[in-house]
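Worked example 3 (structure in, sequence out).
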């Protein structure tokens, strides 16, 4: 009987972990859908469907990512450094490019967002305070208290774990800077209508590249370290629980 119960518990835990991973994936991809696909669709609807001018269509489509960032800050009821940075750069870039009336500058503005974020992420990594750890933590811990506790222990007492955190930021910062260069060149070389969709392709490629490389170099090793730490502390937690009951 006890063996059957344990097996059921492990199975339930595995299903819960898989479900948590899928939920984390959806949460991670939703900003990409809102910030890239929705503005692109809105641009073509306004410019081709309603005959809105290029600059005006680009301006209105740029409002969507800014609004999404504001909503995330309000919904979380706390200041997320990365989200706040994205909002500030988006608003500043939108205001500057709208006043200039230059459609190509408005396209280049999006790459400016990537470059600023990339630079800040890289600086935070070298300063020992990785900015992207706040977003990476739920992914690695999957919301499980034991894994969250393991993360806290490792982030303060494990140099390999901290190195993996910094590596994650370096990969993402480098990918964003490379994406910035490609989009700036495209904004001033290619037709505006082409660059509206091609810019998202470049962004998507950079994101997939960063996810794959950062996953192999940082996320995978971090998950293994968290799992090992959870296993190391599990016997102590059980002993403490039994002592409390006694």
């Amino acid at each position: 009987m006890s063996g059957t119960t344990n097996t059921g518990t492990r199975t339930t835990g595995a299903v819960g972990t898989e479900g948590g991973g899928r939920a984390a994936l959806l949460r991670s991809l939703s900003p990409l859908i809102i910030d890239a696909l929705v503005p692109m669709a809105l641009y073509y609807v306004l410019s081709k469907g309603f005959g809105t001018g290029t600059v005006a269509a680009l301006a209105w489509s740029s409002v969507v990512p800014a609004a999404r960032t504001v909503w995330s800050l309000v919904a979380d009821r706390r200041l997320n450094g990365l989200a706040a940075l994205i909002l500030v750069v988006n608003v500043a870039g939108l205001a500057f490019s709208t006043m200039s009336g230059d459609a190509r500058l408005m396209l280049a503005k999006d790459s400016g967002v990537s470059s600023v974020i990339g630079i800040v992420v890289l600086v935070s990594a070298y300063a020992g305070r990785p900015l992207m750890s706040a977003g990476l933590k739920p992914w690695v811990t999957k919301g499980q208290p034991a894994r969250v506790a393991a993360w806290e222990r490792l982030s303060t007492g494990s140099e390999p774990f901290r190195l993996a955190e910094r590596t994650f930021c370096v990969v993402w910062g480098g990918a964003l800077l490379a994406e910035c260069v490609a989009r700036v060149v495209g904004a001033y070389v290619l037709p505006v209508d082409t660059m509206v969709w091609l810019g998202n392709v470049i962004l998507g490629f950079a994101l997939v590249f960063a996810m794959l490389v950062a996953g192999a170099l940082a996320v995978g090793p971090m998950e293994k370290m968290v799992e090992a730490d959870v296993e190391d502390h599990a016997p102590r937690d059980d002993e403490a629980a039994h002592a409390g009951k006694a």
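Notes: Residues 1-18 have pLDDT under 50 and may be disordered. The CA atoms of residues 86 and 227 lie 32 Å apart.
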